[in-house]
Amino acid sequence: MKTTYPSDLTLQQWECIKELIPPAKRGGRPRTLDMHRVVNGILYVVVGGIQWRLLPQEYPAWKSVYHYFRQWRHAGIWKRIHDTIRALLRRHDGRHKHPTAGSIDSQTIKAGTHPDVRGYNAGKKILGRKRHVAVDTLGLLLVVVVTSATLQDRDGARLVLHRVGGVGKKLVRLWVDGAYQGPFIEWAQNLLRLLVTPVKKLAEQKGFTVLPRRWIVERTFGWFTLHRRLVKDYEVKTRHSESMVYLAMLRLMLRRLAPS
Q1: Within 13 A of 25's CA, how many CA atoms are on the CB side?
Q2: The dihedral of CA 121, 235, 153, 202: what is its sign?
Q3: Where are the beta strands (DSSP E) in 119-239?
Q4: Of the candidates 143, 203, 187, the residue with the CA atom closest to the CA atom of residue 167
Q5: Region 19-42 average pLDDT
Q6: What three-state secondary structure class fits 56?
Q7: CA–CA distance, 100 with 77 (Å, rounded to integer)
Q8: Cβ neighbour number for residue 144 with a 10 Å cutoff
Q9: What is the pLDDT of residues 176-214, one digit of tens each?
Q10: Contact at 8 Å (CB) between 198 and 180?
Q11: What is the distance between the alpha carbons of residues 151 and 158, in angstroms, rounded to a whole number?
């Protein structure tokens, strides 16, 4: 199958995830849709930032595409595929599939008009949501938690570490910025046996400066903004927002594993 749009997966990239796609349910009508085209339709929405109803006719009907996005979100399929490909890419780069170190940070973005969760971040002066993320030392995503923008970074980090699960079972060290100092560091060390190291701004720093370790997670946030659906949070449900992030990172990793 030839690619129609730049967001489409090539045949080589599709082969990397084809076996991870859930089979059709038993007892119902046989599946007639080409799942490669369905996934391409979902990625078109993620990259292009369009509404589902505006999906081009080259893809299956938008209701069918959205149905699979939503169904697999509920079943945790997108994160499962994402985690599998991340482990594969780490091995491809000569790393163990489970990282031992990483970084935690948050990104505040504006939200759409009808979210179920939204709040005001007084520091950034933004009405919207926060993406709390943990990444490995390559900048690859471990877990993302989307919350109201009012939630403090250190409280969001606790949610991240509670949800990181098996992908972070070998984590022993995390780098963070100054917002995570205080009780959070003691909590992570005493409860999770994690060494949390703040990387503070330089005393003479003015404007943006690349800081050791912290720049890795900032680069990951930059990767997010290459996908127009992530520039602003248009999703009603926060779990849908998280799935959009996993899909964006999945596409990025597949392009590394099987370059066009």
Answers
A1: 6
A2: negative
A3: 119-121, 126-136, 141-148, 173-176, 195-198
A4: 143
A5: 90
A6: coil
A7: 25
A8: 24
A9: 988 898 899 999 999 899 999 998 776 666 665 667 788
A10: yes
A11: 11
Q: Rounded CA gap, 211 and 65, in Å? A: 41
**Kind and range of the H or E element at 164?**
none
Non-local CB neighbours of 144 within 8 Å, separated by 6+ positions: 131, 132, 133, 160, 242, 245, 246
* Chain Cα centroid distance, residue 205: 30
Q: What is the pLDDT of residue 151?
A: 96
pLDDT, tens only, 96-107? 999 999 999 999
* DSSP 8-state code for residue 196: E
Rounded distance between C-alpha atoms, residue 119 and residue 96, angstroms: 39
Sorted by where each starts, the structural domains of the chain and their CATH numbers stand as 98-235 (3.30.420)
Q: How far apart are CA 106 and CA 156, in angstroms?
A: 8
| Whether the predicted model's global pTM rises above the 0.85 cut | yes
